[in-house]
Amino acid sequence: MTATALDQRQDFALNQYAKGLLKPFKGKGEILRFRDELDVECRRLYQEAADFANRYNRTVVQAGLWLKPHSHSGGRVRAVQWRDKAQSQMGRRLLEAVLKYGDVPQGMKRQLVEIETERAIFNAKIAAATRQVDRLNKLIKDLDVIEAMV
Q1: Burial bucket for residue 2 (CB in 10 Å: 0-12, 13-18, 19+)
Q2: Which residues are CB-neighbours of 130 under 8 A, at least 6 positions away?
Q3: CA–CA separation, 32 vs 70, rounded Å?
Q4: How would you classify residue 12: left for phi > 0, otherwise alpha for psi between -120 and 50, otherwise beta?
Q5: Residue 75 contacts by C-beta under 8 Å, 6 or more apart in sequence?
Q6: CA-based angle 105:107:108, to the nearest 5?
Q7: Are residues 40 and 77 in contact, defined by beta-carbon separation less than 8 angstroms?
Q8: Is the pTM of this model over 0.70?
Q9: Reduced to 3 states, what is the DSSP secondary structure of residue 105?
C-alpha cells in the first residue's frame, strides 16, 4: 500500500522549520537553501490538501457538506475549505449552520468538530509555510539590491 502525503514526513516541521527559523542565517546561500526546503514542503502540502479532503468527504457528505482544496489566487498551496454539496457556496459558516440547525446526530457533530479542528491546523501550517517562502523571496531580492550597491 502506498503512503499518502498525509502519512509521510510528519516530523518535517520540528526537524527543519524550527532549525531554520531559530538559528541565524550565515549568508544568502543558507537563506536560499532554507527557502528551497520550504518550497518543496509547499509542493508536498499541495497534494496533502487533496488527500485531506478525500479522506473526510465520505463522512462530511452525510451532513450535506464537502471539503475541497481551494486557492484564492493560484497560490503555491491550496487551503482546504468547506463547501456545500452543490459546490456553490464556501466557508466555515456552512459547517456552523449544520452544527447549529442541521438534523445530524450528536456523534456526527463531534466528528465534524474534530475534522474542523484538523482542517484549521492544516490550513495554519499551509499559511505559515507559504508566508515564510514569500518573506524569504523578498529578503533574497533585498539582498540582491544590497549586493548591487557595491
Answers
A1: exposed
A2: 42, 75, 76, 77
A3: 28
A4: alpha
A5: 130
A6: 70
A7: no
A8: yes
A9: coil
Contact between 91 and 61 under an 8 Å Cβ cutoff? The reply is no
- Please tell me which residue, 146 or 89, carries the higher pLDDT value: 146
One-letter amino acid at 24 equals P
Q: Per this entry, what is the length of the chain?
A: 150
Q: What is the pLDDT of residues 39-86, one digit of tens each?
A: 888 888 988 999 999 999 999 999 999 999 987 655 667 889 998 877
* DSSP assignments along 114-137, one per residue: HHHHHHHHHHHHHHHHHHHHHHHH
Max intra-chain CA distance, the chain: 69
In the chain, DSSP assigns E strands to 65-70, 79-84
Measured CA to CA in angstroms, residue 15 lies from 12, 21, 37 at distances of 5, 11, 12
Query: For the segment 83-103, what is each residue's pLDDT rounded down to a tens digit?
Result: 887 777 888 899 999 999 888
Residues 86, 80: contact at Cβ < 8 Å?
A: no
